[in-house]
Structure prediction request, 217 residues.
Amino acid sequence: MNVSDAVNQRSSIRSFLNTPVSNKLIKELLKKSSRSASGGNLQPWKIFVLNKASMKNFLIFQEAWDKPEKPAYDIYPPKLKEPYRTSRFELGEQMYKILGIPREDKEARISQVMKNFKFFGAPCAFFCFVDRQMGPPQWSDLGMFLQTFMLLAKEEGLDTCAQEAWSIKNESVSAFVNPDEEDILFCGMCIGYRDKEDPINSLRSKRRPLKDWAKFI
Prediction:
């Protein structure tokens, strides 16, 4: 698979088969991903993998956690302006339309959102942490590392979903994986094989046209 095909075929998958993924393959993908661009070669990513027994135990642990949590950071700006607000809104409406969930069915919409915290049924996942000392340039490095991992996973026939939603579970996830005290949770990553029969995996998000965001000077 060439890079262009991997970029085009990658998408956020929200329904997975329970087909196992080997730790050996995940290790190889993580090692390759570590070649991602990193300012000053800081390599600020810290990864905790859940698979097999650890995945099962984590889901049980999360189910029992009942303490209020403080999000690690704001996923979106509090007053999201255009065109970003519309892009986010349209994606949500597109997804719920595929699922047949009307806007007034708040319970069904919340139920769908909560599937994030079961990794959409993926058998394997990881959490990406970063030292609180790091700033925007290093957080950008995390994005490049994650994108590299997702493209390499696609090359291997795997599907993924990057999940910033996990940032609101910073405290419980930290209690389970035991990172360094100065580290915070940036995101989770579902890893597995997509359920081709689930309509939600037909979701293809729209992209704004090039003329809206690129200028050739």
